[in-house]
Amino acid sequence: MRENPLISDISSQFDAQLQVQRQVEVADMATAEATEVTLAGRLLGSVGTELELRLMNGESLRGQVLRAAGTWLVLELQRAQLLVWYRSLGAISGLDATPEWPTKVEERLTAAKILRDFAASRLEIQFVTHNSSLQGYIQRVGQDFVDIIDHGRQVTLPFDALLYVSCPR
After folding, report:
1. How much is the pTM?
2. What is the distance between the alpha carbons of residues 23 and 168, in angstroms, rounded to a whole number?
């Protein structure tokens, strides 16, 4: 029995429309998934990657992401480790497109813990805000502040004032 050209044409049109519909569904699913992705997730997915961070104060930092959490990351430079808050970021180059979601441990890891690790080094630490930079030794780390000794005077810095903190290696 010979194939009917009309049926063949209708079948081809149906297959083409089905393919277009599948492409639309895939695009819709990708868009829906993208709305679930956060900057923190992309930075978590970039651990081990070299990034260039352009900060809100105009400064540019380049290094490898050592750790990342919900609101901050640790950037490893040649001679220092930097604790950088996401709110200080103006632009990021080299960011991995594939996100990761934090584990329960990563969700509980705070910037205060990283600052306590920096304090244990007993090295002079640099604290950078929007318009100034202080050098000092960490005296105490609270939930949302750090007390430092800067040239013999005690200074309290709220975390919200900090762009990043640099600890020499």
Report:
1. 0.78
2. 51
Q: Do residues 168 and 80 touch, judged by C-beta distance below 8 A?
A: yes
Residue 140 pairs in a beta bridge with 147
* 80-96 pLDDT, tens digit each: 999 999 999 999 999 98
Q: How far apart are CA 18 and CA 60, in angstroms?
A: 49
Here the tokens at position 111 are: 């910037």
User: What contacts 108, CB < 8 A, 6 or more positions away?
Assistant: none
Burial degree of 105 (CB within 10 A; 0-12, 13-18, 19+): exposed
Task: Give CATH for domain 39-168.
Answer: 2.30.30.600
- Judged by DSSP in three states, 9 sits in helix
